[in-house]
Automatic annotation (TrEMBL):
SUPFAM superfamilies: beta-lactamase/transpeptidase-like (SSF56601), Penicillin binding protein dimerisation domain (SSF56519), Penicillin-binding protein 2x (pbp-2x), c-terminal domain (SSF54184). SMART domains: PASTA (SM00740). The lineage of its organism: Bacteria, Pseudomonadati, Bacteroidota, Cytophagia, Cytophagales. Signal peptide: none annotated. InterPro entries: Beta-lactam/transpept (IPR050515), Beta-lactam/transpept-like (IPR012338), PASTA_dom (IPR005543), PBP_dimer (IPR005311), PBP_dimer_sf (IPR036138), PCN-bd_Tpept (IPR001460). CDD domains: PASTA_Pbp2x-like_2. One of its GO terms (molecular function) is penicillin binding. The chain crosses the membrane at residues 14-36. This is Transpeptidase family protein.
């Protein structure tokens, strides 16, 4: 054997030896990690008790408020209850452990006080660093009580003797499902906003988490190594929205009632303030296919629900025609029998038999498809680019830019796009072959209500930290009006005409004026528009003479036996009126003020005027109502037969004469003298059972008879 062969053999032996050694070491490590035990426990279980690593303590998420300060979403803390049984000295531990056991038993009601005390003693005896006392977390109110307990009580001079309450924050919506899709919610795993304002303002709301060292004890329990500044998370900022809880309740209640009535698929309502674009209410309800409520907020139709708007889009068509002076409101249009064919397409009016020859304003008020087609044919069919240019001028080809994620961009065709046909302009003129959201259509109508000035809708007014404004959203008004003042004036008259004597005359209100437009768009099923399946909407504003609020109401796919009663005028418009009526009653600022009568009143004293009372009160009433028959004397007074006033003698030791007084005035006079008053009837005091001037006897009963 030569030297080379001997060297190779030795190298091979060394290699095998090293391989076997490596396998043995790995095997030993695996054995020690997973199989070896010491005092009855595996080593990996024991190592857990000595593991220190970085951990994240989540910051308190910012709150979301309504316009009036009501909470829409907040983070409520719950607390993990644990204790380090080694901290307390022997005498304190032994004297207080039974008391703590009884209190824990009373709180959690899963073990006796003796069992809890034994658990604590065993943990101290085994030198455990941390004992999780119960898997259930306690509320803030329970925490406050626990801070007075032994081991948890702390003073300025002495820290708590081992007890610990670690906070965890859970998102809570005080108003339940109200505006849920708008306010939003959190992802249950990441705890980040997954929709609505929660997602749109995630960085501001989330705050800054704290990162520090924790000791991971047996069972995965984490105990902070220190409580220094690095372990103090920074709370999130608070959002102050433009939503009004009362308006939101009105919108959701009325919408749900209509959806139930028509067994509809879905619906939405948006209420916006005209001049500022602040959204006061935004309701979205969809039929629930699972268990629970019939209608739920699981999709934001207002922001993302694109569809053919239908006849509400005729406002844009009329404005384009008026801008070009192609028509005028009094121009006569012969709509014939309400049906016409154009390039193989039949254009039909909802009114059977047609409307004959009517004015351009009546074409809009009666929502005549034929009339719109004829006016467009006379001017824009040869100028499709010009018509589309006006739609861009009206800002209908772009999102509103509301500061919330999820707004779907509009789909608006033009002659350069694929799919444009010779009839595209026809369908577009009365609201088909396009996709717009309710918010985009409402913003367009809101601009008309605002004298042509387009305002960006907004949902968040301010972002605050501890009450201090960090960020404020200014009102954005587009620098250029969407149309000429004359055009705006004319279409506003048309919108009022729709309610006065058009397709929405059923919602006319004698107390205030409404302006708006109905829209009934056929829905597509299996690639074709289906008769009887409608997307209904009404968009408008009120009071029409001085608009403060604009609103859209949408009911999708209402059901009923009579197809003629499924149009927007019967379905969506009444929802608009119901909400508008309630808002009008609620917001007294939009009421027409009463005009004070000038000059002295010539009203003579009459039975309906006060015949007795306290002079100061009568002076106030007389001033407010401009009545010149105020008393010239002070104190308690009564009107004599001639109309003059005389004082009523009031002595503490005598029964007063309360005849002619209201019950509100008579009661304190009698009860302050210790009398028990029995009342019969309504109105003013006509008779009293004890004569005036009689000496007062304490606790005596006096009967009053009231009359009108």
């Amino acid at each position: 054997m030569n030297i080379k062969e001997e060297f190779l053999i030795r190298s091979r032996h060394a290699f095998y030896f090293l391989m076997l050694l490596g396998v043995a070491i790995i095997g030993r490590l695996v054995y020690m990690q997973y199989f070896a035990t010491f005092k009855g426990k595996h080593w990996n279980e024991r190592i857990e008790g000595f593991q220190i690593r970085q951990d994240t303590i989540r910051a308190k998420r910012g709150d979301i408020y309504a316009r009036d300060g009501n909470l829409l979403a907040t983070s409520l803390p719950t607390y993990e209850v644990g204790i380090d049984p080694r901290v307390a000295k022997d005498d304190y531990f032994n004297s207080k452990v039974d008391t703590l056991g009884m209190k824990l038993s009373g709180l959690f009601r899963d073990k006796s006080g003796r069992e809890y005390a034994s658990l604590l003693r065993a943990a101290r005896q085994s030198n455990r660093k941390y004992l999780l006392l119960n898997r259930r977390r306690v509320t803030f109110q329970e925490r406050q009580k626990m801070l007075t307990w032994p081991f948890f009580r702390a003073t300025k001079k002495l820290s708590a003797r081992g007890g610990g309450l670690r906070p965890f924050y859970e998102r809570y919506h005080p108003y339940g499902q109200m505006a849920l899709r708008t306010v939003g919610d959190l992802n249950p795993f990441t705890r980040m906003g997954q929709m609505g304002l929660e997602a749109s303002f995630q960085p501001q709301l989330a705050g800054k988490n704290a990162v520090g060292l924790v000791e991971v004890l047996a069972g995965g329990v984490k105990k902070p190594v220190d409580d220094g500044p690095d372990m103090k998370p920074e709370p999130g900022l608070d959002l102050y929205t433009t939503l009004d809880v009362n308006f939101q309740d009105m919108a959701e209640t009325s919408l749900k009632k209509a959806l139930d009535k028509y067994n509809a698929d879905k619906g939405c309502v948006i209420v916006m303030e005209v001049q500022t674009g602040e959204i006061r209410a935004i309701a979205n309800l969809t039929r629930n296919t699972g268990n629970g409520p019939v209608y739920v907020e699981n999709f934001n139709h207002a922001l993302a629900g694109r569809t053919d708007p239908g006849s509400t889009f005729k406002l844009a068509t009329m404005m384009a025609l008026l801008e070009e002076k192609a028509i005028w409101p009094e121009k006569l249009i012969n709509t014939g029998g309400g049906s016409v064919r154009y390039r193989g397409v039949e254009i039909v009016d909802a009114k059977r038999g047609g409307a004959g020859t009517i004015t351009a304003q009546q074409v809009f008020e009666k929502s005549s498809n034929v009339g719109i087609h004829l006016m467009m044919q006379s001017y824009f069919y040869s100028r499709p680019d010009l018509y589309c240019q006006y739609l861009r001028q009206f800002r209908l080809n772009q999102p509103t830019g509301i500061h919330m994620k999820g707004e779907a961009p509009p789909v608006m065709r033009n002659p350069d796009m694929k799919g444009w046909s010779k009839t595209s302009l026809t369908f577009m003129s009365y609201g088909y072959e396009m996709q717009l959201t309710p918010l985009q259509m409402l913003t367009f109508y809101n601009a008309v209500a605002n004298d042509g000035h387009w305002v960006r809708p907004q949902l968040v007014k301010q972002v605050k930290l501890a009450g201090e404004v960090v960020e404020e959203t200014p009102v954005y008004v587009a620098p250029t009006p969407i149309a000429k003042p004359e055009t705006i004036r004319k279409v506003r008259n048309m919108l009022e005409g729709v309610v006065d004597h058009g397709t929405a005359k059923n919602i006319k209100n004698p107390n205030y004026t409404i302006a708006g437009k109905t829209g009934t768009a056929q829905k597509i099923y299996n690639g074709q528009y289906q008769q009887g399946r409608y997307y209904t909407s009404f968009i408008g504003y009120f009071p029409a003479n001085k608009p403060k609020y604009s609103m859209i109401t949408m009911i999708d796919n209402p059901h009923g036996d009579n197809v003629d009663l499924l149009y927007a005028g019967s379905v969506a418009a009444p929802v608009f009126k119901e909400i508008a009526d309630r808002i009008y009653a609620y917001d007294t600022d939009i009421h027409t003020p009463f005009r004070a009568q000038k000059g002295p009143s010539r009203l003579s004293p009459a039975p309906m005027l006060a015949s007795a009372g306290y002079a100061n009160d009568l002076h106030t009433i007389g001033t407010e109502l401009n009545i010149d028959s105020e008393p010239a004397v002070e104190g308690w007074v009564r009107r004599k037969q001639g109309g003059n006033w005389q004082s009523i003698a009031v002595r503490k030791d005598r029964i007063p004469d309360v005849r002619g007084l209201s019950l509100r005035d008579a009661l304190p006079l009698l009860e302050n003298r210790g009398l028990r008053v029995q009342v019969e009837g309504r109105g003013k005091v006509m008779t009293q059972s004890i004569e005036p001037g009689t000496t007062v006897a304490t606790n005596k009963q006096i009967a009053l008879t009231l009359g009108l």
